[in-house]
Amino acid sequence: MTTPRARRTPEEARRLILDAAASLLAESGLAAVQMRAVAARVGMTDAGVAHHFGNREKLLAELLRHGGRRLRDALQELLAGWLDHDADLLDLVEALHDLYRHGYGELAVALHTAGWRDPGSGMLAPVVDALHRLRPPGSSLDDTRLAVAALHQAMAMESLYGSAFRRSAGLAGAASDDPAPQVRWWARQLRFALRLDTDRGPRDPGSPAEDGPPAPAPA
Q1: pLDDT grade for 135, boundaries at 50, 70 and 90
Q2: Are 200 and 83 in contact (CB under 8 A)?
Q3: Are 100 and 156 in contact (CB under 8 A)?
Q4: Mean pLDDT score across all residues of the chain
Q5: CA neighbours within 13 Å on the CB side: how many for 120?
Q6: 168-197 b/e (C-beta count within 10 Å ≥ 16 → b)
Q7: What is the model's pLDDT at position 71?
Q8: DSSP for residue 5
Q9: Would you say 35 and 56 are in contact if contact means Cβ atoms under 8 Å apart?
Q10: Helix 46-53 vs helix 10-28: angle between axes, to the nearest 10 degrees?
Q11: Does the pTM exceed 0.90?
């Protein structure tokens, strides 16, 4: 005996489909996000998923936007208490890394290669604003934006190429496969490059005082 399918609103159906696609992406990578696999996970037919998203390419594009909304929500929650509660800069870097390590880096690269472009902009504007308020008076806002853009780019690529890049620099074995030191390195470089007020938050783990002065920021 077959079980009757539950009636869902279009909004609920789209949310369930995107959640299922995000789970497949995190579990098995981009290739696993197929219309049939998503349909099976939410108890729909392939045609039902196509009714809401058209085809796989459109589903993937919406999945990337879905990831962007998740990132915005996580960052808004983090930023809400940052300046008042001395949140660590490392939390911001880890929030970006956490999103992309669940498959969204691979998704973003694949969609960009296929010609898709996100018409939106300013997703990380709250991050820019929060960091810029911690910089010395008169600091360049464009420099803050460029630093955040560089960080975003690095975290998006980390899950795809981080290990290979570390091996190319001479790191091997567990040192090349573990992204945590690289994530901490980025938090330190962002603090140094922007000359952030280091008294506003705890020193990030992995950066003892005896490490010495930072390397000069790129021109």
Answers
A1: very high
A2: yes
A3: yes
A4: 82
A5: 11
A6: eeebeeeebeebeebbbebbbbbbbbbebe
A7: 75
A8: P
A9: yes
A10: 110
A11: no
